[in-house]
Model the fold of this input.
Amino acid sequence: MKYRTHTCGELRLSDVGKKVVLSGWVQRIRDLGAVLFVDLRDRYGITQLAFYEENKELLEEAAKLGREFVIMAEGTVTERESKNKKLPTGDIEVKVDKLTVLNASKVPPFTIEDQTDGGEEIRAKYRYLDIRRNPLKNNLIFRSRVTQAVRNYLTEQGFIDIETPYLIKSTPEGARDFVVPSRLHPGQFYALPQSPQTFKQLLMVGGMDKYMQIVKCFRDEDLRADRQPEFTQIDCEMSFVEQEDVLQTFEGLIKHLLKKFHGIDTGDFPRMTFAEAMERYGTDKPDIRFGMELGEITDLVKNKDFKVFSSSEYTAGIAVPEAANFSRKQIDELTKWVQRPQIGAKGLVWVKYNEDGSFKSSVDKFFNEEDFKQWAERMQARPGDLMLVLSGNKEATRKQLGALRMEMGERLGLRKSDEFAPLWVLDFPLLEWDEETGRYHAMHHPFTSPKPEDIHFLETDPGRVRANAYDLVLNGNEIGGGSIRIHDRELQQKMFKLLGFSDEEAQRQFGFLMNAFEYGAPPHGGIALGLDRLVAILAGKESIRDFIAFPKNNAGRDVMIDAPDYISEEQLKELHLRLDLD
Ligand code: ASP
Done:
């Protein structure tokens, strides 16, 4: 081996006396005059190189090195005089007798240290330098380990890893498609998959029985914090299964990962219907690591003089533990917080349940102690807690309270990153009414099967039909979702009709799938888990960007390669495109 006999993380006391060759990057130089030390770094660790006065020429050469130079050093492993207990290689150093500079380096725009002086923007631009730092490097290594574990587990369960194409036509997952113009077919476009949904179903028709793929998906959505236009899914499909079979299989996977990476044995995952999740937590992805559940008091405030409440469809609150001593200022800030457009509440009513059992509130004029006692019961408030109450339209208010609950959970440190609380959310509505378009949308996607017992509502009361759909939630994040599919042409056709497709449109876009259903499609179902988020949560972190080697920024740009970018007139012409930017 020319470049190295060992890595920079490998040598120990037992190697003393060995002749070795190491290659890596110069992390740090300490020039003490008579002796010069270099910390040499590679992916595996850091080893100290030592240059002594006795070899003057070499010492002078070493003094010319700079940070992030790539070098090769040959020498002898020796025991260090002053050992560094913090480094696994800290007992030894390599006394160098030959130094080769493999490549010089400009001074990096930020320090390559665990605590760097570089801001987010500059680090994104020089992502390859950021990847040299331990935090990002370790994230990528962790991601690789998780991916490997997922693949091994599913393969052992009999799943076959199959690739599906990226140049396809639209698969509706509720976002816009990214499209690719076709040079060979003027005026026609491929779409990049929002998911391999239709292909995995066709693989079931093809008899593959259990499919898996760790696959990129593309969704052109309005950008939200911590969303990526391209992301990775663990995508799966199974034949001859009911909901229960899918839940068991993927509960098994998550249990396996929690055990492997955290030594945690979770019991069986709790299950909750969508309706219950909305009622208790104001969200379909509740973080159940803490309580603070929504307590509804609509009936208790109906016949009182407080108009805001008595005229509202829904009034409810949460009890923030041990927050009765919040200052006026803190409460004002919370009021502003719920009034931000992202939350959208009109105002916030507060009730302090004091330690001595008395109450103090912003609505003392309208309600008495007896009222507040009843409220406290509904919200499971105890003396010392602060009740925060919102009212208005039921759906919106629940969501606002759900958001407030999460915020308070965060602020009070109740969302502990080393605690894992998975759960299944079941029985989602099949359809969602969209005010803007005046139409129903598939809540999951149009291939999701309605619950057989609800099918008769399809014609009379579509909004009431529940789906055979399920979400896997972990620590307040939706990490996966799936469903039992429709495998019958007629029902699929009916579904498209409900969603506002004409028969012709449905046939043109999804005829291939419905045709396949006529050739012996087995009952089937599946799920997809978001790998980026799953890895981040398993690592106890929030941001998925830190677990993607080359992510896009909040505006959907890759600032390192500077994409998206314009293309040449020539390319446009070849693709039969003309720009109209006004
Ligand atoms: N295709 C779905 C998604 O990407 C998952 C599934 O239904 O299996 O969300």
